[in-house]
Amino acid sequence: MHESKDRGALLATVRAARPRDWAQSAAAWWCREAVDLLPQRFVAALAPAGRPRLLVDRDDTGIRLQLNDPRSGVQAGETTHAGEVTAAIASILQRHGLDRRDVDLGLRLPEESVFRRELMLPPEAKGAIDTIVPQNLLRRTPFKAEDIYCDHLTATSPDGRIAVRQWVTRRHHVQQAADQLGLAVAHIDFVVFGDDQTSPSIRLARPAAARKTSTVAIAVLGALAVLLGSSIAVLTFARQQATLARLDAEIVVARKGAERVRVLVDQLRERRTALSRLRLQRSEVPGLIDVWDEASRILPKHSWLTELRLVEGANPRSATVTMTGFSAAAPSLINTLGGSRLFVDAALTSPVAMDTIENRERFSLQARIRVPDAIKEVAP
């Protein structure tokens, strides 16, 4: 029954942590992508190898101070006595050019003052480890949160589950060791246990400087992202403006070309119209052959021509024909020509005279060529 309650609480915690897990995964992905764009030297400045650590260890021979700075590779140590710990800490840090606020201070406690335990969690609990492990500790052990310090490490087991190792120490152990050294617990950042170099470590509080570094790194990455986005926007805008300017120039050139083409088209249209008018005039205006055929058709047998002359005027309507010849009844030819479909306004141009040789009347008359209606509309 107790096991089922623990499992239900674990699943509830996992479900509640999923949105946070997604947010953390998205933030981690964004940070990785942003870091890939930065120079390696800049990345190293934003993500240093680690903070310097100063470990205070009390044994039968005295009090030992061990300084380890992974950034510069400095490892130093010295021995002092009770009552001089604070001064010794300040002295060793000053010699190595370190500020107390940039160094994590820790104590070494006896091995018997730590409680160890291990547990396995499902893969779905990955985003809620920091919440699940402390809750599980308080439910499965008699410890109370206000009486202990605890910390944990995780690893992935071969079957895909999450293996958790947790260490717990009581607060009074830390308080007692700090009082013996004349230090305040509020100034202690971590504690280790035993003499082994791989002994477990419990963080009492997250270093403020680390939080500050993380905050600065996030702010710098955010500023870089904004700068990168702004640069992309500016480059895109500049590229678009250059494209628009190029298109404007091409439009101006194309417009001039279109105007030239329009002028040529208008000229060709006028020439085509004039050519069409000329062709129409030539096809519809009667020619000399038409005049000769019509005169041969309407003249009576007692009349014949000695001269037929077609005179073209400035326009089709002013074309005239002049006929000279002999006829037995020359005056009647005026009426004959008046009934023609081709001749109009016929009239004698000289008096009729009798020719004694031909025994016919000699005549000379003139008529205007009848122009079709289509020609009249086209003619200017």
From TrEMBL:
Keywords: Membrane, Transmembrane, Transmembrane helix
Transmembrane portions of the chain: 216-238
A Pfam family reported for this protein in Swiss-Prot or TrEMBL: PilN
InterPro entries the record matches: Extracell_DNA_Util/SecSys_Comp, PilN
Name assigned to this protein: General secretion pathway protein L
